[in-house]
Amino acid sequence: MACSGCSTGRGNSSLPKGCKNNGLCGSGCNKLNVFDWLYDVQLPQNKPPFPVVEVRFKNSRKEFFYNPNNLPLKIGDVIAVEASPGHDIGIVSLTGELVKVQMQRKKVDCAPEELKKVYRIARQGDIDKWQEAQALEEETMHEARRIAADLKLEMKISDVEYQGDKTKAIFYYTAEQRVDFRELIKILADKFKIRVEMRQIGARQEASRLGGIGSCGRELCCSTWLTDFRSVSTSAARYQQLSLNPAKLAGQCGKLKCCLNFELDSYVDALKAFPNTNIKLKTKMGDAKFLKMDIFKNLMWYTYEGEVIKFIPLKVERVNEIIEMNKNDKLPEDLNDYAEIIVEETKDYTDLAGQDSLTRFDNLNKSKKNKRKKRNNRNQKNNKNRKNNQNNNA
């Protein structure tokens, strides 16, 4: 295997040569990687290494396996592991003491001996059969979709994962309601001669598996680096002063975009300095109500009741000052006395190529026509003068 970020192969070593990152890239070339920061730390004397390894399979599936024979496994090794039934082929993604931390984080409480076992480092025959199974996945998925459509099942089969020994396949699907797929399992098992397992996933997991380009122009976060899917609510959009437009807030999965949570904490912290927007500012000119705000400029816009068109920008400090005055039964004369002067920023740029004019080529063609016309007129005049001189000489 080679590291796509390094552009170099492995050679005789089991680690990538380019980044020399212990076989683990922090650049994001594989979102399932975990940086082993304990790699160079030696264990105390007479303490055996932790006998459990983390193994990754297709897409985002990871499992923990017991290494009873203490095989010298390294990150990136292709191994054969116990499956139900038969055996599966996976890639070692983490070894050593950090596996304990991962098991605690994923709440795997069983003892190492109770986990499935690592059989051996994969032989060439195992890898060949594994690659043959992977080549069948796309064709199997399309055929399974056709069979499900013929059975009129309200489900969408989004991916198929074959087991390394080609005896079993996991069919991932999404469905809005409960689906009775017993007949589908019988047909698939009879057609492909395999053991069938149906596994339902959510819309976000489906988008993560399929991938795509988001509205920002980059690859989807869920298919590149995001590994956990936290719930996203419309309150995240409200805190960030975004319009509740489902077409703009929804991602390719049809759910609210995960990126709405990325900057939410910054907005929540910034909003702590802002007063309640339901409070009206009382002045001698009348009451003013809140319209909108700019969180990071610390500006709030108010308008007098009955004068909706006129916006009055105020700093947050000024708003808090007026609210405090109202609590003490004091009324300011006019909000315009406290208004903030906003200077619109103008971007200066130099158009070196003249590309801001849509008619620049039209003017060029017109000037060429004028030059050609002048040249023709001048030639005609010269020819006429030449003829006149010849006639006079005769």
Shape, please?
extended
What's the pLDDT, averaged over the residues?
Answer: 83
| Class by alpha and beta content | alpha+beta
**Assembly state:** single chain
How much of the residues is beta strand, in percent?
15-25%
| C-alpha termini separation | 96 Å
**Elements, N to C (H/E):** EEEEHEHHEEHEHHHHHEEEEHH
Please estimate the helix content: 25-40%
Question: What can you tell me about this protein's structure?
Answer:
By secondary structure, the protein is of the alpha+beta class. It has eleven helices and twelve strands. It has four domains: 19-122, no CATH class; 132-201, K homology (KH) domain (GMP Synthetase, Chain A, domain 3), CATH 3.30.300; 226-270, no CATH class; 281-337, no CATH class. Strands 1-2-5-3-4 form a five-stranded mixed beta barrel. The protein has a four-stranded antiparallel beta sheet with strand order 9-10-11-12, with helices on one face. A three-stranded mixed beta sheet has the order 6-7-8, sandwiched between helices.
